[in-house]
Design goal:
2 copies of one chain form a homodimer. Chain A is α+β, with helices and mostly antiparallel strands. Helix content of chain A is about 20%, strand content about 30%. In chain A, a hairpin with a 2-residue loop joins strand 8 and strand 9.
């Protein structure tokens, strides 16, 4: 049984970035990771740009009145050569002529008979965004491995890109075992419960922009199990077993993985929930067997699978953002393992939600984050700082 | 010009939850909000459930050895009537017979010739999850307005649901103006820049699970503008104008909104970036005109549009999670307005990223959150706590 820290270290060491990449339109790039540096196609701004609605002026401290010789709307290609003492009307975003030395905002300007004068102090070089102030043509806009969120997509669009090269989205298989499990919507017989881990995990993957997901129900038969595992190892990059490798199905799944040459990296982590967590690899494919208890499986997703997915796509192995917050109540650790507790952030404290059992999901539906109680921490007083993984 | 706090208050007062709802499969419910309370279809667990692999025992402190009379796998409908002194093998998740009074984990059991004895202390009622411990049939599992994330979807599946009623996803129109704007991928003429706000905002909406989005490029013509606004007011729930209501296009858009009976709730907010923010309503439809500068537009999305979307879908007007963190450097506010700064969280501090200009998106691509500097705060010392909106 290894520590949480060692388990994370081993996952980080073993997960390989996918080598496949694809060119996609910017509109379909959300949630993906760049497979190469992206350079700016342009100087941004492409010209000295007015930051205000106002007047572009060939200015001198000696001159009080300026002759108005035209208007430059945003997008206009009018670029007059202003002589000293001349000005043009200009709008935010408009190209400031090279001959203009400052832009005076309209609130500070008096217009009279084609001439302007100023009602506030003016100096050279006001309200002009220099050409290439943000970035010059061919400079790196976003490096390889960058995550494409709304801001990144807007930024690349602003710099002229409509297509980008991204790492392929990992193909995921979710394998479920367990004859006691019935699909939601059907009736339960005595002894049966609903199988909801696969739909829960599928949604968790979707929330991380992973959409190529197949479900496989593993049969209760050795040969078929070996064949099913062989098939997903060929087709997919990431295999997730839900129901884990517990006694009931231990032999088939474990021996099915072994028969397919999957190498165990670790089995069992000193944590609660989710002790029976298995991680193995084969030819750069990753195999996680998650605990069957839903809250344990979802915790393992956020703690281990999320950073693995990031790294698999060429991003950093970061996982959930971690912050420190004061805990809202005293807490005494009961388990002899590190704990991940469902927590709710309110008034800049994090409260431990009730219903923390690994079988229970209700507290997860209320949670903003997972409070991490390291193995070394036995007791916390209200107000002590704890680490929270934001989910 | 109103304050950030007043602007948020007015948005919250005006945004109405959509009345349309739909029944969707649980698999398509991610990111939606329940339109009604959802009750549990079952007791969960539906029977007293074993929390361990071990032995279910009709236990007495007087008895040392128990007769093993069978096995209950998870899902088995075998429910023997155990006499005092009898036991059955049972697996995690299996239905504990009513006649069993405790479950002893297998690590603490010695099996010999069909009889078991214990190697550790045993008492009544161990390792049994009581029937309906999590929830009883017909109790409210999740109330109306609940947000459906992976945990909520797993929870409803676990309780037997395969379909749920959710509030309709708002229909959104993104209207862009500005003849200087060119689509990415094309060449720029002098004075032109790329239009990337619409794709950036579309991705921001998608990140909040809003997918019914139409783009409309507003023509530079009064009658056509009135007609285009009329059409989206009929078709959509939320209208977003990118490029805002600045001088260049002020008349057409502003008068186009007025001609369509849109009532102004506010115009201009005492904030940086994003002062020229317009919010109006017509028949429960919301109209936001966002500033044209990309970083200002995206800030407005996170601060105002995100909570509006939540409330429109029957959720709480919460917006981004807000936490307090120490600021990593001294900061002196320059603007005479409240500020939202792009911030990066590291080592439990938040650093103010460079390139904060409202025209610049590069810092947004690095940001974990927006640091809110209220109007009253003029100066911050390194280590002072600031509010961060997590994005």
């Amino acid at each position: 049984m290894i520590s949480v820290e060692n388990a994370l270290k081993l996952v980080k060491e073993q997960v390989q970035p996918l080598s496949r990449s694809a060119e996609v339109s910017l509109n379909n790039a959300f949630g993906r990771y760049l497979s190469e540096d992206v350079l700016s196609k342009i100087d941004m701004p492409p010209f000295p740009q007015s930051g205000m609605d106002g007047y572009a002026v060939h200015f001198s401290e000696e001159i009080d009145r300026y002759e108005l010789i035209g208007e430059i709307a945003a997008g206009s290609d009018f670029h007059p050569s202003l002589k000293l003492g001349q000005a043009v009307r200009i709008f935010t975003g408009g190209a400031v002529p090279e001959s203009a030395t400052t832009v005076v905002r309209q609130e500070d300007v008096l217009v009279e008979d084609g001439w302007i004068s100023f009602t506030a102090g003016v100096k050279q070089n006001m309200n002009i965004r220099p050409k290439a102030e943000q970035i010059a043509v061919d400079e790196i806009a976003l490096p390889k491995g960058s995550y494409l969120d709304a801001a990144a997509i807007g930024y690349l669009g602003m710099l002229g890109h409509d297509r980008v090269h991204v790492i392929d989205s990992p193909k995921v298989a979710i394998l479920t075992t367990g004859d006691e499990l019935v699909k939601p919507g059907q009736a339960l017989a005595y002894g049966q419960v609903y199988e909801s881990n696969s739909i829960m995990l599928e949604q968790a993957f979707r929330s991380k922009s992973i959409h190529q997901i197949q479900h496989v129900k593993l049969p209760d038969d050795y040969d078929q199990t070996v064949a099913a595992i062989e098939k997903v190892l060929n087709d997919c990059d990431l295999i997730v077993l839900s129901g884990g490798i517990s006694v009931g199905d231990y032999d088939y799944v474990k021996s099915g993985l072994e028969a397919n040459g999957v190498e165990e990296v670790f089995y069992k982590v000193k944590q609660k929930p989710g002790k029976p967590l298995f991680f193995g690899t084969k030819n750069q494919k990753c195999i996680f067997a998650l605990p069957g208890n839903p809250a344990a499986a979802l915790t393992a997703f956020y703690v281990y699978l999320f950073p693995a997915l990031q790294q698999m796509q060429g991003g950093q192995f970061e996982g959930c953002t971690r912050i420190q917050l004061p805990i809202a109540t005293d807490y005494i650790r009961k388990a002899k393992r590190a704990e991940f507790l469902k927590g709710k952030i309110e008034n800049n404290e994090v409260a431990v939600l009730s219903a923390q059992s690994s079988a229970m999901l209700s507290s997860f539906t209320q949670a903003d984050g997972l409070i991490y109680i390291p193995f070394e921490t036995l007791e916390l007083k209200k107000g002590d700082e704890v680490e929270v993984l934001l989910i």
